[in-house]
């Protein structure tokens, strides 16, 4: 009899341990289910609804498992014994019908949630019952994942921050997200779900913060040695306090300007970067990051695609091959200065013209190689010896040719 009770006692102890896990982790572990943003709250409600639907099956199965084990134990002589029983239509309907209905409900929730909570879709409300008017303009924040820190650019306000994000409460925020080197993931649990940040690409996220306070953002995708320290502070401020925060950032003399040269220095790998602010930002910097042409000697991807869309430039396109090198060291101002001249007509966008003008920028660019923290740069591979062509052999001096 005691041996029969042991599995039940163990199951009860395991259930109590699982229920105690949220209490051990503290209240911060429940931020996903009790967030400060309307989008994250709707996503949390989806998790709760999905869990509740699945528990409709899980709880009865667990309860019946314990009931059957107890009712039909070997010591219970009063239990019905039917060795020839093999089918019940009612039981089959319950076994197959209930899971089918739950799957249909889960599918409907997933379909509706996927469209209503699409991160690329502008918000229709800032909170339950608070619709967004057509005249309400969202705050744009440009996000760049660096090694290993986060850069936030406020294009309308003309400022930028590192590892610090301030947002006005009850105002829609449109994030434009990219990365400088490797794939990363932008995640603020109290605001919305995680969105990937990829080099040469732009992703978007629309969200809103409803409650003032301090929250935490992080990277949820491994990106190298300093990944665990890619955390930043998120502050929710009322509208007037947010304006004061912007004015304070502009007034900081030590903030300086975030231009191309400073960005090339900022994106170098570093860990545990303190929060700092830039009083001004060079216009269009984020678009240069996305198009991989912050280095003024590089052709932007939109220029390249424009040329390709028109069928290329024939032989003349060979002259711009050096500018199309986007390796780790050659793409970020660390290669040797170029000696060739380029035809301005090849630039198909206004950004291309600006790049050509920037070639004459007298400011020096740090030529030190980009290396990760604690890593040494490997020796560069030797250049292959060119093989003499048939044309070169035919043009050899007459004294070196064999007599016919």
TrEMBL record:
Keywords: Cell membrane, Electron transport, Lipoprotein, Membrane, Oxidoreductase, Palmitate, Respiratory chain, Signal, Transmembrane, Transmembrane helix, Transport
Membrane topology according to the record: Multi-pass membrane protein
Spans traversing the lipid bilayer: 53-72, 93-113
Location of the region described as Disordered in the Swiss-Prot/TrEMBL record: 366-404
Predominant location category: membrane
CDD domains: CuRO_UO_II (cd04212)
Residue span, Cytochrome oxidase subunit II transmembrane region profile domain: 24-121
Superkingdom per UniProt: Bacteria
Classification via NCBIfam families: CyoA (TIGR01433)
PANTHER family according to UniProt: CYTOCHROME BO(3) UBIQUINOL OXIDASE SUBUNIT 2, CYTOCHROME C OXIDASE, SUBUNIT II
Protein name stated in the entry: Ubiquinol oxidase polypeptide II
Organism: Sphingomonas rustica
């Amino acid at each position: 009899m005691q041996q029969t009770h042991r599995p039940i006692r163990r199951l009860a102890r395991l259930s109590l341990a699982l229920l105690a896990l949220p209490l051990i982790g503290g209240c911060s572990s429940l931020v996903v289910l009790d967030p400060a943003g309307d989008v994250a709250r709707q996503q949390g409600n989806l998790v709760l609804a999905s869990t509740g639907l699945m528990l409709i099956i899980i709880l009865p199965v667990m309860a019946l498992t314990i009931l059957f084990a107890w009712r039909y134990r070997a010591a219970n002589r009063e239990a019905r014994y039917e060795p020839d029983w093999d089918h019940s239509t009612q039981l089959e309907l319950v076994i197959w019908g209930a899971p089918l209905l739950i799957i249909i409900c889960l599918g409907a929730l997933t379909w509706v949630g996927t469209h209503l909570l699409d991160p690329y879709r502008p918000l229709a409300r800032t909170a339950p019952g608070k619709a967004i008017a057509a005249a309400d303009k969202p705050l744009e924040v440009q996000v760049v994942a660096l090694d290993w820190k986060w850069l936030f650019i406020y294009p309308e306000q003309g400022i930028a921050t590192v590892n610090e994000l301030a947002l006005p409460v009850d105002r829609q925020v449109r994030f434009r997200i990219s990365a400088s080197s490797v794939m990363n993931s932008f995640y603020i649990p109290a605001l919305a779900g995680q969105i990937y940040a990829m080099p040469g690409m732009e992703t978007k996220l629309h969200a809103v913060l409803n409650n003032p306070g301090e929250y935490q953002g992080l990277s949820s995708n491994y990106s190298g040695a300093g990944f665990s320290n890619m955390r930043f502070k998120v502050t929710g401020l009322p509208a007037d306090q947010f304006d004061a925060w912007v004015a304070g950032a502009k007034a900081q003399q030590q903030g300086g300007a975030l231009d191309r040269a400073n960005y090339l220095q900022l994106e170098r790998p570093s860990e545990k970067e303190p929060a700092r602010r830039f009083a001004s930002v060079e216009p269009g910097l984020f678009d240069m990051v996305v198009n991989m042409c912050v280095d003024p000697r590089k052709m932007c991807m939109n220029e390249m695609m424009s040329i390709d869309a028109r069928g290329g430039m024939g032989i003349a396109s060979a002259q711009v091959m050096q500018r199309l090198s986007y390796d780790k060291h050659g793409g970020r101002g660390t290669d040797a200065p170029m000696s060739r001249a380029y035809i301005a007509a090849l630039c198909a966008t206004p950004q291309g013209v600006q790049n050509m003008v920037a070639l004459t920028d007298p400011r020096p660019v740090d030529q030190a190689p980009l290396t990760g923290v604690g890593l040494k740069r490997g020796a560069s591979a030797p250049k292959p010896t060119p093989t003499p062509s048939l044309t070169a052999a035919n043009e050899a001096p007459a004294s070196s040719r064999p007599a016919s």
